[in-house]
Structures are given as C-alpha cells and as structure tokens.
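Hi L., both proteins are below.
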Amino acid sequence: MYQYSGPGSQEVTDAWNAGFFGGMAFERYLAQQGYIVACVDGRGTGGRGAEFEKQTYLQLGAERRRATRWKLRFTSFYYRYMKTSFPKAYSTPRQIVQILKSRGIHFDDEDKAENYLMNIGYHRLSAYIFPFYKSPKSDLVLKDGTTFEQVMTLYRFDKKLRIVLFNEIEKIEVAIRSVLANMGCQELGDKYWITKAEYFANAEKFGQTLTVIEKELASSKEEYIENFRQNYMEDYPPAWMITEVLSFGNLNYIYSNIASNRLRKLIADYFGLKPQVFPYPFVCWVCVMFLALSVSCLL
C-alpha cells in the first residue's frame, strides 16, 4: 500500500504518475509478481472537499491511523474472500499447438513445436507469445503472419541477454563486496570494523545490520565460516568474510550507514560515482544493480 497523506496532498489521481518512483514502474512490477498494490488518500488529504480535509484537525495521528487500519482490513478481506477457483484445465503440448493454431500462429513443424513446449513449457513461452497478440490482447487473436519460430527467436534472444546481464552484474556485485571490505579495513585500520558500532552513524540501523550478520553467519555452510568458528576466539569473522555472506541489499545498507564521509567517498570514487549529501549516488546505483539482478534471476 502506498500512502503519503501530507497536508493538502493527493496521491489518488486519474494519471500514471503516482508511486514510490513515479510512473508506477515499481508498483507495476509488484503487480506482475502477484502482489495487490493499493494507492490511498487518508483523511486530511486534498482533492475531496473541505469537510474531508479538515477531519484530521487537532487529531492528525489518531484519524490517519484509524483510516489506514480500515484500508488494510479491506485489502485483506478482498484478497481472502473475493478469490475464485482456478478455471483452466491442463492441456498437453499437442493440444496447445492446436489452440495456438486456432489463434492464428503458423507452425513449420508441429512435432518440433510440441517438443519445445514439452521441454520449455507453455507457461514460460506464453510471455514471448504475448507481444504478438492484436489489441485488445484479451481477445487472444494473434497478428497476421505470426510464426512459432518468431516466438522462439524472441525467447532465445531473451535467454542470451539474461546470461550477458547476469554475468556483468555479477562482476559488479563481487567488486562491491571486495571494495567495501578492503577500503574499510585500509581506511579504518580495523579488520572487524563491520561489526563495531563506533564506525556507523545510526546505532539503530547498526543493530539491525548486526542482527542480520549474526543470522547469516549462523546459517552459513561456507567452509571458511565453519573453520573460523572452530579455530578462532573472536565473536565475528573479519570484514572480508562477512561481506561474502551478506546480500546485495545488506551491503548497501551498511554503506549508507558508514559514519566516515571520507570512507564513503573513497568507495564511491572507486566506482566513478560523485559523492553528495543525499541521496548517495552509490546507494542509488547499487539499488539499480540489485533490481536488475533480481529481474535477471526471475526472468
């Protein structure tokens, strides 16, 4: 649920410019993954007359908490009780070929197409058939001249692109892990700096990070972590081991909380990013890399 509810604000409009990043891009992505996305305006927001806007006068927090609870309850009720049974029956690859033929697709070799559908699956291939449907796409009528080979060409292109993207993003991810650990140790002169509160600006954020680190170390089956546990007395391994077991998002969280402006600048400069007060370009860049990596894995 997306809500701002600032004085005089209005997020629910007849336009495609709402959401966390504008343009509804992030919200559309969530919806494609099966999440229900709701944008709401609470009591006290604009665009609905003076009576609605003045309801929060002298009781801003109470009214908005009450309104938000009702929105969440309604969304939960809708999700739980308004669903229906899945109507589609299973179709064999041969049946799917005939269904696609009825929609207008041309097959040079139906037996070969059936093998592709058996090995890849129609559910996966349907995403590559979708662009070939005429508008409105809900009619399920394919454009004139659409062939199954065109669908497979698009599928192969996407597969190769995903491999290239994943390979390049992985290089960046490995570099971020190593640079964060190396530069932190060099600049601070402490190989355990990642697990020490004195090097971080926000104690609460550090506590959250430390909890994640402890959880990841406890569940890690990496041989070097097991070896450290068995042979050394320190509570935590050095930074270069810890950065290897944390997620991309955790590393970004650590960077954003580093107290030393100089250290943050050194890390950002290494990747050719100019430092500034907020938002940190490095943080935004890593967020984009993390999203690209996630999408590459999901495709």
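That was the first. Here is the second:
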Amino acid sequence: MCEELNRKEFHEAIDTTLSGLQSDPWLAQRVVNRERTSEPVVKKKLSVSFVMVIVLMLLAVAALAATGSYVLQYLRYRDDIHEEDVHPIDQTFTDDNALIRVVDSYYDGESLSVGMEICSEKPAYLTVESICVNGNEYDLSESNIEDMWVSYPPEIDRKASTDAHGFTICFDSIELQGPSSHVEMHLSLLVPTQKVCLIETESENHMKSWHNIDEAIQRGETPVESEEPFQVLVGSEWFGDDMVDFNNPVQRPVNATDAYVNASNMTLLSEQVLSFDVMIHN
C-alpha cells in the first residue's frame, strides 16, 4: 500500500513538472539532420618533430635521474671532485629538432666546467661558435671545446661512451667574482646532407687524403676522419689561397659552422643560444 502510494505520488509529481512541455514529432528528425550536416570536430595532431622533442625531454630527465651528475661524468678522469662540489643548473633549451639540457657545473678557482646532455632527432655534429662569461667572450682555443659528434651516424661503427657532454673554460690567473656568473653559449648542431664518407688521414700520402676528401665532397658526401674523434673535414677549395701544397697534412677548421655547411655537405639542424647562471662559491 505504501509502495503503491509512493509510485502514485511520484507519477503525479512528474506530470505536474512536465505539464508545460509540448510534444514535437519532428525533434528527432532535426537532431538526426543536424548530426549529418554539422562540421566534424577536427582534432589537432602534434607534429612529429614536436613529439620527438617531448620524448627526448623525457629521456633526458630519466637519464639524469639514473646517472646523477653530468659534470662528474664529463670530468671522470679527475678523482678530486665530489658530489658536494657540484652545483646544479638544470635548464633545458629546445627547438623542433634538438633538446639541450644544461645540468650542473664545477668551478675550482681556475677553470669552469659545465655538464650537459644533448639529444637530437638525427645523429648530429656539435660546433660551438662562442662562449661569453659575464659579458666577456673567451677564446675557444684556450678551452677544451672541440667540434664533436653528439651521436654517431651509421657509417661510424661506434657508440658514445657516455651521454654526458660538456666543456671547460680556463681563466688562467683571473678568478670569477661573486656568488654566481652568467654564461652565454652559442652552438649549432649539424647533420650530413646525404651520408658520411670515412677518410684515412694518418697516411703519409697527404695528397691522396686530400684527393679522397675532394672526391667525397663532389659526390655530395660528408668527409669524416676514419679514426677517433671522427672529425668532419673540409675540401681543399675551402682554404682558397692558403691551400698551396697538397703534400701538407689534412687540416680541420675549428668551430666553423659555415665551413661545414659550405664545404662539407652538412645541413644546419639546430642553432641555439644557451643562457644560464653558474654558482661560483659554496
């Protein structure tokens, strides 16, 4: 009885609430027609390059967590540096083709070392154009900064010994002042336009080495030393009037992005300016 009363009260309440509504026999058809004629919602797709950058960033974070200090890995030949001597930086710079993570630094009063992780969409060759500390540009020849492969192309049968990259600047008798210093670094990542051609350069037959380099360039290939550190080479034409004798040993430009692009069949993959602060004193 109580259940039947509750049902009756429920139906009466519904009828009272909906009494003002009028039936519309064409409502269903209009809904169907609108569904057919309405424009579909287009979902935006992320570009492959952007997805790659995201993946590289995640890999970099995972690698950092797994391996700890990058500057200690970079300075692994030194046994006088400890974790407490290292200062974190942890800044990431990205574009569509590369991710560069400035991880940490170490300063010993005479030189500044910075550990980095560099991830690129393709096997890339790193060149550093300039480094400024507190607004002062330093001669790259006074540092240990060299052009280097961040990851190797398939023609070079070798894997990187470590994911840690970096650089060290020597300040001689000049001591950095203040609790921190500002560093600005201009670097480029290059990739072979087609493929790499390994060139034997240790032979005493220098004329043959130059000939092989020039032939590789004419074929559209990128000439690279066949021995570690596998530096990219440029052809004799790039040296212009300075190229007076093919019996001289093979020469290599240093920190010369334009030379590699114009005379080594390389393409600019990424160009970035890294701007970050480093701690100087504990």
